[in-house]
Amino acid sequence: MTALFDPVLTAADAALRTLFARPHATRVLPAPSQAPGEMSETERREAGALMRVNHVGEVCAQALYTAQAAVARDPALRAHFIEAAHEETDHLAWTRQRLDDLGARPSLLNPIWYAGAFSLGLVAGRLGDPLSLGFVAETERQVEAHLDSHLDRLPPADSASRAVVEQMKLDEARHAAQAVDAGAAELPAPAKALMRMASRVMTTLAHRI
Question: The pTM is what?
Answer without folding.
Answer: 0.90
